[in-house]
Every structure is written in C-alpha cells, then in structure tokens.
Design a protein that fits this description.
Layout lengths: L2 H9 L13 H15 L56 H13 L4 H20 L1
Length: 133
C-alpha cells in the first residue's frame, strides 16, 4: 500500500486495497460494465457448405445480416452536371496594361467580363462596317 492509502486506512476511510471507494458510483458502474463484458459470449460465425459432388437440394441458409451503417461513411450524392452557358473557353494573350484597361472598363460600366468582351466585338464589327462603306 502507498503512503496515502496507509494514511487513509489509519483515518478510517472506507477504501479498498487499491485506493478506490466502493461507494463511488463511477467505480460501481465500471465494475458492472466489466462483469457484463466478461459474461458476454463471443460471436462465432459458422459456414455451411453443401457436400461436394452432390446436387444441391435445399437452398443454402442465408448468413445473418450484419449492420455496417455506422462503419462505412455515407457516399455523397453525385451532382447533376449543369449545362455550360459558355461552352468554349478562350485564352487570350494580351499585354498587362491592356488587361488592366479592359478590367477597368468592365468595372466602370458594371459589366461582367463576358458582356464587356461582347461589347468590344460589337463595336469592332460596327467600326469595320463603317470603314467598308
């Protein structure tokens, strides 16, 4: 016994030899769980197979179902592919100052970059048409 256990025994505390109290609810719960675990029978699986070289007369008994819902993670639902609004993507090489001018124009007129680019193309086509006349 340790020094603290000796002192507790001299003072008349109701401690067991390992220093735990029998009146402690946590200790009683632990002992009850330990007894339940010891009393539980182990789970055994037996497989029954039909005899070899003989036709199977009866269906094979089904194995007991084991729930694995808590073990396997749930699979995420696949999202439906959305239809692309702009199916073709373009990569344009422009100078940094031209990119800044384009971004500032789109911001100043509160346009999306796609709408600003469309406007740029419309203006260019109108200018070309005026040059042909």
């Amino acid at each position: 016994m340790t020094t603290n256990q000796n002192l507790a025994a001299k003072n008349g505390d109701a401690n067991t030899h390992d220093g735990s109290s029998k009146d402690d609810p946590l200790e009683r719960l632990t002992e009850a769980l330990r007894d339940l675990i010891k009393a539980r029978e182990p789970v055994t699986m037996t497989t029954i197979s039909p005899p070899k070289n003989e036709p199977e007369l009866e269906p094979e008994p089904e194995a007991p179902e084991v729930s694995t819902a808590g073990v396997q993670p749930k699979k995420a639902k696949k999202r439906e592919r959305r239809t692309l609004l702009y199916p073709n993507h373009y990569s344009l090489r422009i100078r940094e100052e031209d990119r800044e001018r384009f971004d500032e124009y789109a911001y100043r007129h509160r346009l999306e970059k796609g709408a600003a680019f469309k406007r740029l193309l419309d203006i260019t086509e109108a200018w070309e048409a005026s040059q042909k006349d």
